Amino acid sequence: MKEDLLHFLWSQKLIYTHKLMTSAKEKLEIINIGTCNKGAGPDFLNAKILFNDQLWIGNVEMHLKSSDWYVHQHEFDQNYDAVILHVVWEHDVDVYMKNEKPLPTLILKDFVKPTVMSNYTKLMYKNTNWIFCEKQLHRMDPFLLSNWIERLYFERLERKTIFIQELLSLTNNDYEAVLFCLIAKAFGTKVNGDSFLKLAKSFPYGVLRKLRFNQTQLSALLFGQAGFLGEELDEAYFRKLKKEYAYIKHKFQLKSLEKKEFQFFRMRPANFPTIRIAQLVALIVKYPDLFSRIINAKELSIFYELFSVKVDEFWREHYTFQTSSKKSNKFTSKSFINLLVINVIIPMKFVFMKNSGGYDYEGFLTILKEVKAEKNGIISKFSELKLVSKNALDSQALIQLKTNYCDKAKCLDCAIGGYLLKE
């Protein structure tokens, strides 16, 4: 039993409201449950309640046991002076107001509908289940589920935008600089994402603005800042970049990262940080105006065209400065571009729209619904439970559902849990 259940029962009125009585046998009628308070103080504010046909307006506080009032020392907190009703599961002690009169108390367990508690027991009995509701999930109303999926996606999108807004505040709202950081982090993939973000932040973006039209200079900047030009190799391309970087480093007073920041171990050669940096260079040189292109693009096919870049001549025959490979263009794959759309492009467009006052949610939702659903353990398991992701919007929503609701046992805050409890 958790206090959250009391909040849920009260807010959803899953009790026999027509015969409510306080612990002192006073007739009680709820006119208005009040407003849920997410901050400090009583749980519900400005409730309207009739006690023996007399209207009281004030706050409602909830506890599993009435003695918790004293455990939490509410008697010393003036925020609780306007409490007119104490809602508890078990009444083990009387609580007194400032005027030394007993605080009206509602013992909720005496008025809860049995079906609700039966559903709650079934729902919260996890045992070996992957999620609490997996045995009942098939009973969820399809229309409500569809709405919940879309809301879950926007919750996840809002979480992603927090990081973007933080970067904007650090760069004086330089959207191009923020986009570069986000794309760099994405090109680092899960293993090297944080290292690539450090690389993007290791020099002022103004330096990249000056060099982005010259592939040799930009390559020297990124490989040099990543620490890959610190060795001595008898290779013409390497020596060329090393010489160029020495000039750039001195001119802009830069400090490079160490090569050991970047992981190669157990990675596919196509994901080596050297190849990802080469692809990043190719992208920036090809599209110096990448930010405006992304903001103006309204079709998924345009993003496939934008990000399908091939590396320069040296990297077509190498995976590292020392390791050669069979000649190939080493294009960015379609699956990788899909991840860019999900994790960079859509969040960036969303933030830009919000900050500029323009809203075209349907536009980017249409793009997202064209992107294939991600493939991972969470999505596969939901598919086994007949909750199949048709596109990236669905898969992102289900990741949000699993990580922020199921894993945290927040069933009472979930539309699925709420539906099954009230069923």
Summary, kept brief:
With 423 residues, the chain is an alpha/beta fold. It has 17 helices and 6 strands. It has 2 domains: 3-112, no CATH class; 153-370, no CATH class.
Structural class: alpha/beta
Total beta strands: 6
What is the ordering of alpha helices and beta strands? HEEEEHEEHHHHHHHHHHHHHHH
**Count of all domains:** 2
What is the mean predicted local confidence, pLDDT? 94
Shape: elongated
* Rg from alpha-carbon coordinates: 29 Å
**Distance between the first and last residues' Cα:** 20 Å
Helix content: 40-55%
Percentage of residues in DSSP E strands: 5-15%
Number of helical segments with 4 or more residues: 17
Write structural notes for this entry.
The protein is of the alpha/beta class and 423 residues long. The chain has 2 domains: 3-112, no CATH class; 153-370, no CATH class. It is 49% helix and 9% strand. The protein is built from 17 helices and 6 strands. It has helices spanning 3-12, 68-71, 114-124, 142-170, 175-187, 189-201, 205-211, 215-225, 236-252, 273-286, 290-296, 300-307, 334-356, 361-370, 377-384, 392-406, 415-422; strands at residues 28-32, 35-36, 44-51, 54-65, 83-90, 105-107. Strands 1, 2, 3, 4, 5 and 6 form a 6-stranded mixed beta sheet that branches. A hairpin with a 7-residue loop joins strand 2 (35-36) and strand 3 (44-51). Helix 8 runs antiparallel to helix 10 (273-286) and helix 12 crosses helix 13 (334-356). The chain is elongated, with a radius of gyration of 29 Å.
